[in-house]
Amino acid sequence: MNEDSLKKKLAKLNIGGLRYFDSIGSTNDEALTWAAAGAHDFSIVIADEQTQGRGRLDRKWFTPKGSGLAFSLILRPPASLLPHLSRSVGLAALSIAESCAGLGLDPRIKWPNDILLNDKKTAGILIENIWTGDSVDALVIGMGINVYKTSVPPAELLQFPATSLEDALGKEPPAREELLFGILSAFIHWRERMATDELIHAWEEILAFRGDQVQVQAGGESQISGELLGIESDGSLRLRDAYNKSVIIRFGDVSLRASA
Ligand code: BT5
């Protein structure tokens, strides 16, 4: 993967701009700076290696050299989409999941931001906003996808088991340029449908642990348990608790309940 091969592969897509790095701290940081300096809609920052890749809540995301896909999309949402921005993580997750399904795999989305293959994390998403006053001016959607086996961090560094496309396929995966093209194409398709119920249904359709008893670590010490029912129209998670009451969760990490 290099700048020329990426530009060639993405030529058919209407991207706003491309910045490629052999090595970078975090593509999200670069994208935030570029967005603040006026990057066009659908500009992309991509790197072969990240040395300070970030997850949510100051967690780390590992992208060793030559092993995976790490990129950040800059979006400038039109006013009509501003009410639907909380769906962005679903839009990104669906795009990655659909491109995995296109390879014959059976992906699941672990709410809110993980893509699982064989119940193991293969990709993660980190979304950050740039605000002007109380309106979102630009959105940076960072996606990290484990392509080759070498992208999978040692188990002792992980809270959740991880895998790669190469492991799940049991053979050499397509070139990273090809994978990126597939993800961006799916993203363009779903972005046009961001305000529709279709997006929520497609997201729910491949939601991990649906119908299972789960536990959600919802920030701080707060833990919520219940049956995982689905996704609300704003992208929140819906559970049914032990008292048969519907519980809506806007932020957290889902895990299967050990006692279930
Ligand atoms: C995420 O956070 O999963 C978001 C990851 C987003 C990464 C992309 S890469 C391009 C862009 N630039 C960035 O700097 N970031 C974005 P979270 O749900 O908080 O999960 C983080 C946790 O995933 C860590 O604490 C580790 O346990 C685990 N992890 C780290 N690297 C991993 C990897 N390569 N594969 C699987 N799990 C990993």
Protein model, in words:
By secondary structure, this protein is of the alpha+beta class. It folds into two domains: 3-205, Bira Bifunctional Protein, Domain 2 (BirA Bifunctional Protein, domain 2, 2-Layer Sandwich); 213-258, Roll (SH3 type barrels), CATH 2.30.30.100. It contains six helices and twelve strands. The strands form two sheets. A seven-stranded mixed β-sheet has the order 1-2-3-7-6-5-4, with helices on both faces. The longest helix is centred in the C-terminal third of the chain and has 16 residues, at 176-191. The structure holds biotinyl-5-AMP. Biotinyl-5-AMP binds next to α2, β3, β6 and β7.
Features:
260 residues; 2 domains; alpha+beta; SH3 type barrels; 24% helix; 12 strands; BirA Bifunctional Protein, domain 2; 6 helices; binds biotinyl-5-AMP; 7-stranded mixed β-sheet
Strand order of the largest sheet: 1-2-3-7-6-5-4
**Class from secondary-structure proportions:** alpha+beta
Query: What's the pLDDT, averaged over the residues?
Result: 95
- Which of globular, elongated, flat, extended, rod-shaped describes the shape? globular
**What's the tally of helices?**
6
Major β-sheet, in short?
7 strands, mixed
The portion of residues assigned to helices is: 10-25%
Taking pLDDT < 50 over at least 5 consecutive residues as the criterion, the unreliable ranges are: none
CATH architecture of the largest domain: 2-Layer Sandwich
| End-to-end CA span | 44 Å
Number of strands: 12
Assigned CATH class of the largest domain: Alpha Beta
